[in-house]
């Protein structure tokens, strides 16, 4: 890592003030690996259910383990029982993770119903007990992922402030705050205003923003204007590892790099597919990879046609054929015609 420190997550120093968020169902090793290749200094793995990863047999499965070549990398845990969360954290650090992030943000109804994730925002005592238990167990940095409340009620706002205040008192290494309530899920525009208020009240705390990081230039301007410590890229990085190249280049004062040509995109698509195929049986690999494809094709000038062709492809070979047809030399021609 370079000499300049732009963001500190406890003892972990990053040379740029952004990293890749935890994205359930997406932020697996291949996605993290491409992010890193294009300049992301640190990434969080998919959220893991503490109850599962606390069991000794589960962590031997490679899908839960960090790659040898991707440090620093963080694990995010989901649960409501302090002892289980602490046990999971210890197991994950033992498996090689460099940071533990506590999920107090997930809005999925089945998670909320079980009192986990975003539901913890209504239970400050529980959220803080979990933080204390985890911090008491591991010596790596411990961060918390929050939303700005379960809803916009005064009680919810009060709970949010109580969690923030007590977490900072307990020495949380950073708060990553998604500027939406649980009820909002992903609707509306993310509000970084409350995050600015947190930073104003607790200037020595590390406050990291989440929400609507889609455009590198805009996000960096917003960071500068708000004075927050950093931000995470989430949906904006799915099928788009180039956002990190743009962010890094702008941060380093080198201007916006030229966008990736179709040949470069083709290389990444084929490699990503190959990586996914290593971890899944073929039919599942294609289905799983489609989730990324619909994001990757956004950069293609004939996006609609490419999506249609890709959705018809059933086997890995068929997907590869479509990619080769639309990207690379022929694709460049098709692309050029489309944009001309
Ligand atoms: C499909 C999907 C899965 C997500 N999974 C997680 C998760 O596991 N843990 C987490 O803290 N946030 C998760 N998030 C929330 C993101 O990390 C981020 O906070 C949110 O998308 C707002 O950022 P954005 O508007 O830039 O996407 C997820 C979001 C999406 C869209």
Question: What topology emerges from the helices and strands here?
Answer:
Blueprint: E1 7-9, E2 12-14, E3 18-20, H1 29-37, E4 43-49, H2 50-53, E5 73-78, H3 82-94, E6 99-104, H4 109-113, H5 124-135, E7 142-147, H6 154-169, E8 174-178, H7 193-201, E9 207-210, H8 216-226, E10 230-233, H9 242-251, H10 262-279, H11 282-296, H12 303-312, H13 316-326, H14 328-339
Parallel strand pairs: 3-10, 4-5, 5-6, 6-7, 7-8, 8-9, 9-10
Antiparallel strand pairs: 1-2
Helix pairs in contact: 3-5, 5-6, 10-11, 10-13, 10-14, 13-14
Bound molecules: flavin mononucleotide.
**Number of H- or I-type helical stretches:** 14
Number of strands: 10
How would you sum up the major sheet?
8 strands, parallel
Q: Decide which structural class fits the backbone.
A: alpha/beta
Kindly report the CATH topology of the largest domain: TIM Barrel
Model description:
The chain has 340 residues and is of the alpha/beta class. It has two domains: 7-251, Aldolase class I (TIM Barrel, Alpha-Beta Barrel), CATH 3.20.20; 262-339. The chain is 46% helix and 14% strand. The protein has 14 helices and ten strands. The chain has helices at residues 29-37, 50-53, 82-94, 109-113, 124-135, 154-169, 193-201, 216-226, 242-251, 262-279, 282-296, 303-312, 316-326, 328-339; strands at residues 7-9, 12-14, 18-20, 43-49, 73-78, 99-104, 142-147, 174-178, 207-210, 230-233. The strands form two sheets. An eight-stranded parallel β-sheet has the order 3-10-9-8-7-6-5-4. It has a two-stranded antiparallel sheet with strand order 1-2. The longest helix has 18 residues, at 262-279. The protein is globular, with a radius of gyration of 20 Å. It binds flavin mononucleotide. The site of flavin mononucleotide has 21 residues, from strand 4.
């Amino acid at each position: 890592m370079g000499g300049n420190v732009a963001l500190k997550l406890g003892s972990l120093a990053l040379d740029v003030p952004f990293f890749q968020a935890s994205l359930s169902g997406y932020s697996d090793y291949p996605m993290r690996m491409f992010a890193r290749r294009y300049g992301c200094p640190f990434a969080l793995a998919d959220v893991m259910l503490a109850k599962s990863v606390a069991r000794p047999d589960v962590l031997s499965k490679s899908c839960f383990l960090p790659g040898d070549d991707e440090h620093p990398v963080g694990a995010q845990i989901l649960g409501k029982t302090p002892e289980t969360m602490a046990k999971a954290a210890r197991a994950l650090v033992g498996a090689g993770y460099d940071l533990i992030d506590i999920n107090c943000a997930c809005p999925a109804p089945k998670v909320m119903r079980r009192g986990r994730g975003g539901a913890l925002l209504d239970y400050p005592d529980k959220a803080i007990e979990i933080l204390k238990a985890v911090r008491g167990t591991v010596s790596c940095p411990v961060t918390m992922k929050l939303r700005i409340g379960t809803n916009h009620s005064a009680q919810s706002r009060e709970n949010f402030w109580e969690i923030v205040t007590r977490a900072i008192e307990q020495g949380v290494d950073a708060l990553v705050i998604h500027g939406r309530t649980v009820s909002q899920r992903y609707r509306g525009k993310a509000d970084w205003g409350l995050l600015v208020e947190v930073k104003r009240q607790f200037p020595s705390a590390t406050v990291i923003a989440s929400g609507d990081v889609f455009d590198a230039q805009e996000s960096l301007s917003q960071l500068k204007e708000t004075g927050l410590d950093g931000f995470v890229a989430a949906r904006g990085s799915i099928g788009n590892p180039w956002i990190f190249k743009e962010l890094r280049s702008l941060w380093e004062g080198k201007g916006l790099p030229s966008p990736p040509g179709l040949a470069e995109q083709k290389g990444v698509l084929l490699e990503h597919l190959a990586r996914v195929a290593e971890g899944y049986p073929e039919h599942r690999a294609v289905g799983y990879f489609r989730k990324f494809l619909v994001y990757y094709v956004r950069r293609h000038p004939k996006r609609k046609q490419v999506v249609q062709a890709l959705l018809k492809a059933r086997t890995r070979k068929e997907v590869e054929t479509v990619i080769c047809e639309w990207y690379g030399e022929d694709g460049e021609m098709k692309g050029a015609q489309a944009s001309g």
